[in-house]
Specification:
It is a single chain. The protein has two domains: 53 residues, no CATH class; 53 residues, no CATH class. Helices cover 14% and strands 49% of the residues. It contains two helices and eight strands; from the N terminus they run H-H-E-E-E-E-E-E-E-E. A hairpin with a 4-residue loop joins strand 2 and strand 3.
């Protein structure tokens, strides 16, 4: 039994089942719209849909960029350095500020979908 027959066997069993077994709880629908035909087999609580909307490609998003300027804090830079020597000629270390913190202006390109990129 190949893969195609394996998929069609349960479907055929549902479609050609006797009315006493499948009539009260079965839900079989066939619908045609712009996306193509849709075939639903199952029960009102659970079903399998063949064709239709799930074959449609997702819509393509075109970014509408706008430029936004924001202020950003650049943190100070610290390093551990030798600041002196003790009486036994061993180095004395301390953390020293190498560059102080400052504010800067950053330009961003922002899209309506939420994506951001730096200019």
């Amino acid at each position: 039994m190949n893969a195609k027959q394996a998929l069609l066997a349960p479907l055929a069993a549902l479609l050609f089942a006797p009315a006493a077994v499948a009539a009260p709880a079965s839900d079989v629908r066939f619908h045609v719209d712009l996306c193509g035909p849709t075939f639903h087999v199952g029960t009102p609580r659970f079903g399998i849909v063949f064709g239709g909307h799930h074959h449609r490609a997702p819509p393509v998003h075109c970014h509408g960029w706008r430029t936004v300027c924001e202020r950003e804090w650049v943190a100070p830079c610290y390093e551990r350095r030798v600041v002196s020597w003790d009486c036994h000629r061993r180095p004395v270390y301390a953390t020293v500020m190498v560059r102080p913190g400052y504010w800067t202006t950053v330009r961003w390109e922002v899209c309506g979908c939420g994506e951001r990129r730096r200019c």
